[in-house]
């Protein structure tokens, strides 16, 4: 089977280049080893004079990357507008931050249609399309409109909220109906999957049975596929990067103090304000930790043109300045705050240097930083992971110190516990987490999804005739045939 992977952003896997996000890092090994073609945006836009999308193609391991310029007239409304000012806040249960117009939704659909047309050149015999993330919720429907009957799957890297939150997204019924054109929808957690199916049954009134939704498009299977990492590869990065200049300088600068590390995009879903407040509380309530624990917070800015992100960047910078002003000394800086990205190899070395990993998002699909931190640790002297119970990774990494990111005092206590944890307990917790990471790798994640996609398509080919469908689905189809538009 020829696999075409689709996402808004692609990565080239150069070891010394900064990574732009968890999705890009996760898909690299899939493409490198599967022979897939990975199609995404070039990061550039074009005017409307070019009739057909033009793709630049380059090799990536046994696979390839194809990038194309998106239409300038619609890019802003698609990316900064509907995708990141409507869908992203809603998917992270921040409906109060939704700022979107009708034109933004039109642009979102136009770019989805543009991408569908671009994908047709990669369609061969026995092709399957695997679409990634919230930027392309409607891409499956656009491909079906072009006559594509190949297997089309979709994986969501973010959470999926309860129905009441999704109802705050303009055109939500039309959009989620379009999602049912996919043969397979993958989610990070069971809660996300059940939230989606709850919307389909409750809001759209469609039949749902054993994780399968019946719609005008046929059968759509919804399943959980928790994304993993290549733990052994990341561990090798960490061991190798110990001598990297950035890592060596950091280690020399610590003067025996314990280091906590946080690595995040500068996003309101990551809980950065609460995290910094927890360290402030730690140093205030437990002054014995001053000069003995410091925080390295790497926060790579993104989506700066969106008001909520600009406000957050200013707020975090002010808070870091305030905390350092209260607790710092002439020869000690409590929080080292960096607004730039690092390559995976350097990050692995930084993780290994830190005795405490703090991954405390308010809401997250998986958060691969948590898994990377664990994989990077020295088996003989591992650090401790402090992890939000609202990250998808918490479902697998139960032996981390799980915290409520809204409980500032609780997080401060957990950091103190992590700093004082004896070696035997640290090794016990780390061994249990590494066992999970080795058993649920990125390669297994991709293989499981593609295998299920092939299975779903086989099931669709032998689906029972109309009369045997559940009564609710039959009523829906009859009403659609009679001209009633249910969106």
From TrEMBL:
SUPFAM superfamilies (alphabetical): UDP-Glycosyltransferase/glycogen phosphorylase
Sections of the chain in a coiled coil: none
InterPro entries, per database record: Glyco_trans_20
Domain of life: Bacteria
CDD domains: GT20_TPS
Pfam families noted in UniProt: Glyco_transf_20 (PF00982)
Family: Belongs to the glycosyltransferase 20 family.
Protein name: Trehalose-6-phosphate synthase
Organism: Bradyrhizobium barranii
């Amino acid at each position: 089977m020829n696999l075409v992977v689709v996402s808004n952003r692609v990565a080239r896997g150069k070891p010394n280049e900064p990574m732009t996000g968890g999705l890009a890092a996760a898909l690299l090994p899939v493409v490198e080893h599967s022979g897939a073609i990975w199609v995404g945006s070039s990061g550039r836009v074009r005017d409307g004079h070019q009739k057909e999308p033009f793709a630049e193609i380059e090799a990536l391991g046994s696979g390839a990357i194809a990038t194309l310029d998106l239409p300038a007239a619609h890019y802003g409304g698609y990316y900064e507008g509907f995708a990141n000012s409507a869908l992203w806040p809603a998917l992270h249960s921040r409906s109060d931050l939704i700022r979107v117009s009708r034109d933004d939704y039109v642009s979102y659909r136009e770019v989805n249609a543009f991408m569908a047309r671009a994908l047709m050149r990669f369609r061969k015999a026995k092709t399957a399309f695997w679409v990634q993330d919230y930027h392309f919720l409607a891409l499956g429907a656009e491909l079906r409109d072009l006559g594509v009957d190949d297997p089309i799957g979709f994986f969501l890297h973010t959470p999926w909220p309860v129905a009441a939150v999704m109802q705050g997204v303009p055109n939500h019924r039309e959009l989620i109906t379009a999602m049912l054109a996919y043969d397979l929808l993958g989610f990070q957690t069971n809660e996300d999957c059940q939230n989606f199916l709850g919307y389909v049954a409750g809001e759209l009134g469609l039949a749902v049975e054993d994780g399968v939704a019946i719609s005008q498009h046929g059968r759509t299977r919804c399943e959980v596929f928790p994304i993993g990492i290549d733990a052994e590869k990341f561990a090798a990065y960490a061991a190798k990067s110990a001598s990297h200049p950035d890592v060596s300088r950091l280690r020399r600068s610590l003067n025996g103090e314990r280091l906590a590390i946080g690595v995040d995009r500068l996003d309101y879903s990551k809980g950065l304000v609460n995290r910094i407040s927890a360290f402030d509380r730690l140093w205030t309530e437990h002054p014995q930790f001053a000069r003995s624990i410091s925080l390295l917070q790497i926060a790579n800015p993104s989506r700066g043109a969106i008001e909520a992100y600009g406000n957050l960047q200013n707020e975090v910078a002010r808070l870091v300045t305030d905390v350092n002003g209260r607790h710092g000394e002439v020869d000690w800086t409590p929080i080292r705050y960096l607004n730039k990205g690092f390559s995976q190899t350097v990050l692995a070395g930084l993780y290994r240097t830190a005795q405490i990993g703090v991954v405390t998002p308010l809401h997250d699909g998986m958060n691969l930083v948590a898994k990377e931190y664990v994989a990077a640790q020295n088996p003989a002297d591992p650090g401790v992971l402090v992890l939000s119970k609202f990250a998808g990774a918490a479902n697998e990494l139960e032996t981390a110190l799980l915290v409520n990111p809204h409980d500032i005092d609780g997080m401060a206590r957990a950091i103190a516990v992590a700093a004082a944890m004896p070696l035997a307990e640290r090794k016990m917790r780390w061994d249990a987490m590494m066992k999970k990471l080795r058993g649920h790798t990125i390669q297994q994640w991709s293989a499981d999804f593609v295998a299920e996609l092939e299975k779903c398509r086989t099931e669709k080919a032998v689906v029972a005739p109309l009369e045997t469908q559940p009564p609710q689905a039959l009523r829906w189809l009859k009403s659609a045939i009679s001209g009633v538009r249910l969106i």
